[in-house]
């Protein structure tokens, strides 16, 4: 089944291969962008009767459209209330819970506790402690099964100010979930 991205890509490639001038490709790109914005606007008008819920959805779609138009790497979609960062979506809890319940909540949302692999993935370097997907079971293990060489004494992983640390799993903290973003 064809989607609009495939049609646009094939049309652009065929124009490039046919030796069409650059302005043809620019005009085509501008036309597709206009169609995308028109479609978003029509969707927003359709949602206006939903009231507050419609406003949230409309705001989300507008954000998606603007993100898609402003990024050269393509569009990524995340669920409402999740933040897009690179190829992943992140959700930060507002509640406090122990590690096992936090992990279960992330799984119920289709994700897992965050597994920061480098400084870029530490987002905004929170000043509070947040549960992440690291626990001790015969060695430090990420929730995806990979291992980490760490010599800390706690049982579960936390992140604070960009640093990974550990504490007892029964402490109640906020947590951060992650899942793959949908690539358009």
TrEMBL record:
<dbReference type="GO" id="GO:0009986">
    <property type="term" value="C:cell surface"/>
</dbReference>
<keyword id="KW-0472">Membrane</keyword>
<protein>
    <recommendedName>
        <fullName>C-type lectin domain-containing protein</fullName>
    </recommendedName>
</protein>
<keyword id="KW-1015">Disulfide bond</keyword>
<dbReference type="InterPro" id="IPR016187">
    <property type="entry name" value="CTDL_fold"/>
</dbReference>
<dbReference type="GO" id="GO:0038023">
    <property type="term" value="F:signaling receptor activity"/>
</dbReference>
<dbReference type="InterPro" id="IPR051527">
    <property type="entry name" value="KLR_subfamily_B"/>
</dbReference>
<dbReference type="GO" id="GO:0042269">
    <property type="term" value="P:regulation of natural killer cell mediated cytotoxicity"/>
</dbReference>
<feature type="domain" description="C-type lectin">
    <location>
        <begin position="85"/>
        <end position="178"/>
    </location>
</feature>
<keyword id="KW-0732">Signal</keyword>
<dbReference type="InterPro" id="IPR001304">
    <property type="entry name" value="C-type_lectin-like"/>
</dbReference>
<keyword id="KW-1133">Transmembrane helix</keyword>
<dbReference type="GO" id="GO:0005886">
    <property type="term" value="C:plasma membrane"/>
</dbReference>
<dbReference type="InterPro" id="IPR016186">
    <property type="entry name" value="C-type_lectin-like/link_sf"/>
</dbReference>
<dbReference type="Pfam" id="PF00059">
    <property type="entry name" value="Lectin_C"/>
</dbReference>
<feature type="signal peptide">
    <location>
        <begin position="1"/>
        <end position="18"/>
    </location>
</feature>
<keyword id="KW-0812">Transmembrane</keyword>
């Amino acid at each position: 089944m064809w989607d609009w991205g495939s049609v646009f890509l094939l049309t652009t490639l065929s124009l490039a291969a046919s030796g069409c001038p650059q302005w043809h490709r620019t005009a085509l790109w501008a036309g597709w962008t206009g169609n995308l914005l028109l479609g978003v606007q029509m969707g927003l008008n359709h949602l206006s009767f939903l009231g507050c819920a419609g406003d949230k959805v409309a705001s989300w779609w507008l954000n998606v459209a603007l993100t898609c138009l402003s990024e050269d790497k393509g569009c990524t979609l995340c669920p409402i209330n999740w933040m897009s960062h690179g190829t992943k979506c992140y959700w930060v809890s507002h509640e406090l819970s122990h590690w096992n319940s936090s992990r279960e909540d992330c799984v119920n949302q289709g994700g897992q506790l965050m597994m920061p692999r480098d400084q870029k993935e530490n987002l905004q370097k929170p000043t509070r402690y947040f549960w992440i997907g690291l626990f001790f079971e015969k060695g430090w293990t990420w929730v995806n099964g990979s291992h980490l060489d760490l010599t800390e004494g706690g049982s579960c992983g936390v992140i604070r100010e960009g640093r990974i640390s550990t504490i007892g799993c029964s402490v109640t903290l906020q947590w951060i979930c992650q899942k793959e973003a949908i690539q358009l």
